[in-house]
Design goal:
heterodimer, A: alpha+beta, Arc Repressor Mutant, subunit A, three-stranded antiparallel sheet, globular, B: alpha+beta, 5 domains, eight-stranded mixed sheet, 24 strands
Chain lengths: 120, 888
């Protein structure tokens, strides 16, 4: 269900979760829990991964061929499913990151301008 | 989107469940590491993750086609719920099957006759050439017609003439001589129709010229049947009418004509001929880019040229030429009757829709609680409508498929039962086939039907008042006002539609009975006819023809049981030849001749064999032969039309009027008798003028023309069933003719049946449709009233407890039911008055507002309605007040 209220701070913008997952896996294979923790820690807890969205996202990325998964044993000696970035995934990450930078720059320019003009 | 998404859904779901467990375990570890007790660690981990089921569902749904799966679920549910109420399902399926079945049947005929293009290459460019006159167009052409037409190279790519092979040819030389359907064609015939040649070739221009030799092209059927498909037949000679003919080719089996032919021989027209005998058809192929209108403009110029070339007598003032598209020509006047039938089956389908809608409404109100529960559990209005529509679509599709199989089987049965007189339909309707087009039509109509009858009940059922529906302790809450009103309107509509159909059927039945009552003017009892082809060179003069007629009669009369026998060049009820004539000594006025009449050559015993009454003068005798003075007998219609006051027996007439060409170098003939009319153009037409001359008195040229154009018809009247004499008749005629076979052996009763075949076909179909409509309307009234009685058990109980008599209750229910029926009948009578005008052209001896049909039919319908209401009314009187009240 799509909610109509604006996203609160800390919620991850729609579409960016995929990119964050891909970016996290650049550092090597990881399982779902680690991915969530890494995103939260790296963003200095500014971003909170809604865990109900994480797994659908992982499965979607895997179906697209950007991730590859296999069961293994975690650092805690527990069974866990590890995700690894594929070559296609790497390509997608750089493309997504490029799109993201372009967009944030564009938004920054607009916001910056308006703030600047108000500041005068 | 990749296909991977939809594969192994169950396994992936289990995998995900395990993954979530693993996630929770890791989270719990983290919490434990923060120093929380194990219980709390697990609780917080769960809290943080939320509902694992929701996540799984989200992924599961992402891996599905939601719409298709919802429909699939609805469909399974619909089938389960239909299977739970087998009675309802069976009735609904039956009604839908009848409604769609009749539509499939009629559409498959319309498709074969009207819609499918002709099987010839580029069929749109094919046109039929016709003469036009003040009496309307006529498609038979003469050699001068053909000569002018084939010169119009500005508009026509090809022009070809062909006859229908009336005279036939005798294939002799084997043990069993066989009478063949032999069609005369011009050289370009096969190329015009794109007929494929499987062996040899077709006629050259030289072979199609006078004295072009005896060459023949065989049909595929004859080649296989008689010559075993031997390719060496090409180049060899066969015996036709006792003469050697060179076979030059065989035509492929895909070449289909409305009038079948076994063998084709060239016309060998003498294009310089001025003979105005009209005896064949002409088809042309328009040049690319030439429209029919442009061709007609050019043809009116050609008509001027025709007058200049052949004289102003050759064509009446105002006459001209024209083309009509070949397909339209072949369809003829069949289009309108078929459209009327389509309208009738449309009515049947509407009645079926109203009926099923009614059943569904009743069902929906019984299922009120189910639907309310579903709504309370969160099903949206759209979902409930979708669910109910799925049910109706499942019903209509299954019913439609059942129905079209039934309808198609029924149609085949009907078409195989007898001649249908429908063009393009093939032998016993073989051109009507169950193909993809028919199936698509059925599926389309079924879907449409399902939506039409399903939508109203679905929408009205999707608006339940949740609170009241759920609170009711039983399904006995009664029919809401809105439901009741919709159902009443549906029943009234059904009754009205059924009445229109039944009145239409009644009119056609009355027409058919009137046709049966018409005195055809001759006896059909124990009269057998057969044809003998006399197209061979032996019969190009009158004497040998008169000889075999005389010998044949003698031998036939010698057969025990034979009462009378004769011969002619045409039969009553079959359309024959026509010819112009002059009354000698009478002023002609504007036209070059006095008038025209049907023209028959007969043996002297013709009238006595058919028991055609002699009204005045004398019949022919054996003495009226070639040596005797010329005589003619006319029918009453001719006497009335041309001697309204005078005495025909005092006059002499000149047949051919001196302008019909050399074949009609007729002597003046004394009118010696007037005979009763026979209905030659069909029993529903007023008799036309006819003139009869003795076979023995025909000029030789006329005999030659006649022998080429028509077979000799033998007529035998017997004391016993004529078929029992068939073998002796065949033997007698073979002896008399020196070995000629006979064919087309049939009784006059059969000829008469064929003559009324189209009326019978229309009547049968409309009667079936009317009966189906009546039955469904009765089911509809019965359904509404018995449901209403069931719903009102309480009310009836209270009324009874308060002292109402059983008869009061019964009359109340009957009264309410009959009000619906009466409203439907009133509406129906109005609609029928308006619609039966369309039937006027099918009727004979009955007016479109025939009082019998308009009084008896509504009474019949009301009687059926009364019967349908009676049963629930009886039930109402059997309500036990105590039980009814205790239900509260």
């Amino acid at each position: 269900m799509a909610s109509k209220k604006p996203p609160e701070a800390g919620e991850i913008l729609q579409g960016t979760l995929d990119m964050l997952i891909l970016r996290t896996l650049m550092m090597g294979p990881a399982h779902g829990h680690t991915i969530a923790q890494v995103i939260e820690h790296t963003s200095e807890n500014a971003l909170e991964v809604e865990q109900g969205s994480l797994y659908p996202a992982l499965h979607r990325l895997e179906d697209r061929g950007w991730l590859h998964s296999e069961w293994g044993v975690s650092e805690n000696n527990r069974r866990a499913k590890f995700y690894r970035l594929t070559a296609k995934g790497r390509k997608e990450l750089s493309a997504a990151a490029g799109r993201w930078r372009k967009m944030t720059r564009a938004i920054g320019l607009i916001l910056g301008d308006s703030i600047a003009s108000r500041g005068e | 989107m990749t296909i991977r998404r939809f594969m192994y859904r169950r396994r992936k779901d289990e995998d995900l469940a395990e993954e979530i467990q693993s996630h929770l375990a890791h989270e719990q570890d983290v919490n434990a590491a923060r120093g929380l007790p194990p219980q709390e660690a697990r609780r917080q981990a769960r809290l943080r993750f939320g509902n694992p089921r929701a996540t799984r569902e989200r992924v599961f749904r992402y891996r599905s086609f939601p719409f298709i799966e919802d429909v699939w679920r609805d469909l399974r549910f619909a089938l389960r719920s239909l299977a739970r109420t087998p009675g309802f399902t069976a009735i609904a399926l039956l009604v839908i099957a009848v409604g769609i079945g009749v539509n499939t049947a009629v559409f498959s005929v319309i498709d074969a006759v009207l819609l499918k293009p002709l099987t010839y290459p580029d069929p749109q460019a094919l046109v039929q050439l016709e003469n036009t006159s003040s009496h309307g167009p006529y498609p038979v052409a003469s050699i001068p017609n053909y000569n002018i037409w084939q010169q119009q190279s500005g508009i026509f790519q090809q022009v070809a003439a062909y006859d229908l092979g009336g005279a036939g040819m005798n294939l002799t030389g084997g043990d069993h001589p066989e009478q063949l359907l032999a069609s005369h064609v011009t050289g370009g015939y096969f190329a015009l129709f794109g007929a494929a040649v499987v062996a040899g070739r077709t006629f050259t221009a030289a072979e199609d010229s006078p004295n072009g030799g005896r060459v023949a092209v065989l049909s595929y059927g004859l080649w296989k049947r008689h010559f075993g498909g031997d390719p060496k037949i090409v180049g060899s000679t066969i015996q036709l009418d006792g003469q050697p003919w060179l076979v030059i080719g065989v035509i492929g089996r895909n070449f289909v004509t409305d009038m079948p032919a076994d063998v084709w021989v060239p016309f060998q027209f003498d294009l310089t001929s001025h003979e105005m005998v009209h005896g064949f058809f002409v088809t042309a192929r328009l040049k690319p880019g030439i429209t029919a209108a442009a061709a007609n403009a050019q043809l009116s110029l050609a008509a001027e040229q025709f007058r200049r070339t052949y004289g102003s007598n050759a064509m009446e003032t105002g006459g001209s030429f024209r083309v009509v598209p070949l397909q339209e020509f072949m369809i003829g006047d069949t289009r309108f009757p078929l459209m009327v039938l389509l309208g009738a089956v449309g009515f049947v389908l509407l009645i079926a829709c109203a009926n099923v809608a009614n059943l569904l409404l009743a069902r929906a109100s019984i299922r009120k609680r189910e639907l309310a529960t579903r709504a309370a559990l969160g099903a949206g209005r759209g979902q409930i409508i979708r669910q109910l529509l799925t049910e109706s679509l499942a019903l209509s599709l299954v019913g439609g498929l059942l129905g079209s199989l039934m309808g198609f089987a029924g149609l085949r049965l009907l078409l195989s039962m007898g001649p249908s007189a429908i063009p393009r339909i093939g032998e016993s309707g073989s051109a009507v086939v169950l193909d993809l087009r028919i199936l698509l039509f059925t599926v389309g109509v079924s879907m449409l039907t399902g939506i039409v009858f399903g939508l109203v009940p679905a929408i009205s059922a999707s608006l339940p008042n949740l609170a009241t529906s759920l609170n009711e302790n039983s399904s006995r809450s009664g029919l809401g006002f809105r439901h009741g009103k919709i159902r009443s309107i549906l029943v009234i509509t059904e009754m009205a539609l059924a009445l229109v159909l039944v009145i239409g059927a009644a009119l056609l039945i009355r027409t058919f009975l009137k046709l049966q009552d018409v005195n055809p003017g001759f006896t059909t009892h124990n009269v057998l006819t057969a044809t003998m082809s006399i197209s061979g060179s032996r019969f190009q003069t009158t004497a040998p023809v008169a000889q075999i007629v005389r010998d044949g009669r003698e031998r036939l009369m010698a057969i025990p049981g034979v009462l009378d026998a004769g011969a002619s060049n045409g039969l009553p009820l079959d359309s024959g030849f026509g010819m112009i004539f002059d009354i000698l000594g009478r002023a002609k006025g504007e036209t070059p001749f006095t008038g025209g009449a049907g023209f028959y050559s007969i043996s002297w015993s013709y009238f006595s064999t058919f028991e055609i009454p002699l009204l005045r003068g004398r019949a022919f005798t054996e003495q009226d032969d070639g040596a005797a003075p010329g005589v003619v007998i006319i029918n009453q219609a001719m006497a009335r039309q041309y001697w309204p006051k005078g005495d025909p027996l005092k006059d002499r007439i000149q047949i051919g009027a001196g302008v019909a060409g050399p074949a009609f170098a007729e002597p003046p003939r004394q009118v010696v008798g007037v005979v009763g009319d026979t209905r030659d153009d069909g029993v529903d037409r007023d008799p036309d003028p006819r003139m009869f001359i003795p076979i023995a008195q025909m000029p030789d040229a006329e005999t030659a023309l006649n022998s080429r154009g028509a077979p000799l018809y033998w007529i035998v009247r017997s004391r016993v069933s004529p078929y029992s004499l068939r073998a002796s008749i065949e033997a007698a005629l073979r002896e008399a003719s020196g070995g000629l076979p006979i064919a087309h052996v049939r009784t006059m009763a059969e000829v008469e049946v064929r003559n009324t075949a189209r009326q019978r076909f229309n009547m049968l179909l409309l009667t079936v449709f009317g009966a189906a409509g009546l039955m469904m309307a009765a089911i509809g009234v019965y359904g509404v009233m018995s449901y209403s009685v069931q719903q009102r058990t309480q009310e009836l109980g209270v009324r009874m407890a308060l002292g109402a008599q059983a008869s009061n209750l019964r009359n109340m229910v009957i009264g309410q039911g009959m009000i619906l029926a009466g409203a439907g009948v009133a509406l129906g009578i109005g609609a029928a008055f308006w619609l039966t005008r369309l039937l006027a052209s099918f009727l004979f001896g009955v007016k479109a507002w025939d009082p019998v049909a308009f009084i008896v039919t509504p009474l019949l319908l009301s009687a059926v309605a009364l019967l349908a209401v009676w049963i629930p009314a009886k039930r109402a009187t059997r309500v036990d007040p105590m039980t009814a009240l205790r239900l509260e």
